[in-house]
């Protein structure tokens, strides 16, 4: 309604009439709209003035409120929670580097590493990294709040995902070929 009134006012003013040379052309553009002629003395005036509140004015904007992070055990370890993929990624990164180092130093493939005492190292590392990853999450500290520069939370997640794929590819390649990768 307001748009229609403004449009009618604009088209009917004497200034608009002088700008528009062919009034029938304007009417054909707005054929469904009735454009009445207003008298020259009719005018509408709109004034807008912002009022400033002295209390709300500050030199620096206030920081956005921190999102509340749930510290419940079920929420932290939920399927879409912050802990499972992060912990699995950290374990995969550590496992991939360790598997490559042992393969280069001793020449053992992944399966022989696991069968020759690798399970105890895996369990110990898993417990240590899981506890170290869960402590900050239970305190309400998110990994996103501590990530800056190149070492961001997203980069860690992607590196963890690639390490998980790398471990699976390493195991599959060594199983199919029957020998070490390197």
From TrEMBL:
Keywords (A to Z) from UniProt: Chloroplast, Membrane, Plastid, Thylakoid, Transmembrane, Transmembrane helix
Subcellular location: Membrane; Plastid, Chloroplast
Alphabetical list of Pfam families matching this protein: Chloroa_b-bind (PF00504)
Keyword set includes Methyltransferase: no
Highest taxon, organism lineage: Eukaryota
GO cellular component: chloroplast; membrane
Keyword Magnesium: no
Membrane-spanning ranges: 119-138, 158-176
Membrane protein topology class: Multi-pass membrane protein
Family label: Belongs to the ELIP/psbS family.
Name of protein: Early light-induced protein 1, chloroplastic-like
Species name: Populus alba (White poplar)
């Amino acid at each position: 309604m307001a748009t229609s009134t403004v449009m009618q006012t604009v088209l009917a003013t004497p200034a608009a009439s002088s700008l528009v040379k062919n009034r029938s052309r304007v009417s054909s553009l707005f054929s469904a709209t009735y454009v009445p002629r207003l008298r020259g003395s009719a005018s509408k005036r709109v004034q807008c003035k912002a009022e400033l509140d002295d209390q709300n004015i500050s030199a620096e904007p206030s920081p956005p409120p921190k999102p509340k992070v749930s510290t419940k055990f079920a929420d932290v370890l939920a399927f879409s929670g912050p802990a499972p993929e992060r912990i699995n990624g950290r374990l995969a990164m550590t496992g991939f580097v360790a598997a490559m180092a042992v393969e280069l130093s001793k020449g053992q493939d992944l399966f022989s590493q696991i069968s020759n005492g690798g399970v105890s190292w895996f369990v110990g590392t898993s417990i240590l990294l899981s506890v170290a990853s869960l402590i900050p999450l239970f305190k309400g500290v998110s990994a996103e709040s501590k990530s800056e520069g190149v070492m961001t939370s997203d980069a860690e997640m992607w590196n963890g995902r690639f390490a998980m794929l790398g471990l699976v590819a390493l195991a599959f390649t060594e199983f199919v070929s029957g020998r070490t990768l390197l």
